[in-house]
Amino acid sequence: MRWGERTYVMGIVNVTPDSFSGDGIADTSEAVRFAVAQHERSADILDFGGQSTRPGHHPVTPGEEAARVVPVIERVRSALPHAVLSIDTYEPSVLGAARAAGADILNCVMGLPQPLLEIAAQERMPVVIMHNKAEATYSGNVVDEVLHFLDEAAQRAVRFEVPAEHVLIDPGIGFGKTAEHNIAVLHALPRFSALGFPTVLGTSRKSTIGKLTGRDPRERIFGTAATTALAVAAGIDVVRVHDVAETRDVVSVSDAIVRGWRPPAWA
After folding, report:
1. Which of 68, 177, 240, 248 is catalytic?
2. Pairing of strands 127-130, 105-108
3. Annotated catalytic, 240?
4. Whether residue 247 has pLDDT greater than 80
5. What was the pLDDT predicted at 17?
6. CATH, range 8-258
7. What is the pLDDT of residue 54?
8. Annotated catalytic residue within 206, 215, 220, 248
9. 189's torsion region: left (phi>0), alpha (psi -120 to 50) or beta?
10. pLDDT bucket at 59, cuts 50 / 70 / 90
11. Is 206 a catalytic residue?
12. How far apart are the first and last CA of the chain?
């Protein structure tokens, strides 16, 4: 992936029965079909999660998480040998099993704990480091604290010999942040791009969009699209979304205006 040339779309595949947005799929075959469909909708990355991380979720054991997601990754890898697959986990054993099944990227919602960093470095896996916090309390400016956390975590990964272009940072919209915190972070997206690492943003169907629009999760496509267009303008490299086809249109138009991108048949 050539960072800075265009915005990449990461398509969500929730292999869980309790996703906040109501899109979780518990059946392996159905999840595989959905992942293939996300790829056909032009997702650049497929992101598989076997445990819900919504507020108030009930954690499952690493064994149950792996039992949900690893067979799906294995079958999708067989069906789509050239697709880029990401595993959304903070459990070392799940990461190891997913890597063996064909996952390319680690996407961790808990920063990047040392055991996961060690596996990712050993396996030469790119990493997505997301800011998270147990409570939405900040002693100072929320943006400054999130920036400091991500910069330190990214620099630590580089010191562990993960190439800087393989260290992606995510401000963690909706994780340990109030709606006002989320809006402040979104307002400051250019500061995250300025850190010099590839960037990821996940706003899709989030509760802040619901509070702003009054809409249920499945009706937040246009609210998500607004944040996506602004993310492209701010230089964000990857957007993580449920609605891949709609997002592709948003980033195509936004990239054409902001980055000078053109489709192959433009001439």
Report:
1. 240
2. parallel
3. yes
4. yes
5. 81
6. 3.20.20.20
7. 61
8. 206
9. alpha
10. confident
11. yes
12. 23
